[in-house]
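Researcher: Go.
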Amino acid sequence: MSSASNLVRLGGIAATLGGMLFAAKTYWDRNDAPPWSSDLTDMLAFVNPLLFLIGAWGLYTLCRGRLGRLGMMGFMISLAGFAVGTVGAIVVQFADAFWFVFVLGLLAGLIGFALAGIPILRAKLLGSWSILPLILGVYGPFALMTGDPPHSAFGRTTGLILWCLFGLLWTIMGYALLSAREGSPAPSRSATAVRDGAR
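Model: Structure:
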């Protein structure tokens, strides 16, 4: 198995775990306000954006060379955003005032997903799951900006559903990456042109 396939597989595992942990953390904190409560799970809050970062890197590895300018820009924003979110989640454990770094990092990562999701969908780079990055990029910021479930603008129950659905979408993304690792996305235009010219 090539190193690229290993990265895609690692990204799939990370995205799956990240989605499951996010949903589990949301349910655990349904009567509190994550990540500002004082239980042990908040000390590990950096794990989620780190897993999202690895998942995004796996998706980038799968689609690399076929994204175009918009897709590349989207992934650069996404990877940088999740990296900032990871750092922010660590820093906030020592200084609550920096919680916005964690939040803005996640939002930037998801906005980058939305931008990268457009060429991914157009070229069907993730097969039948190609719309997932775009859905995550559009839905994710909406779900997160409604507020954590105990203080959601739509009420606790609806907020819990919105946030758990976000975690579920990441889990599906992980499954899509794991399913795609053995196959290869559609060839790029340049590769197609070379192949056609050789005939």
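Model: The chain is about 70% helix and 0% strand.
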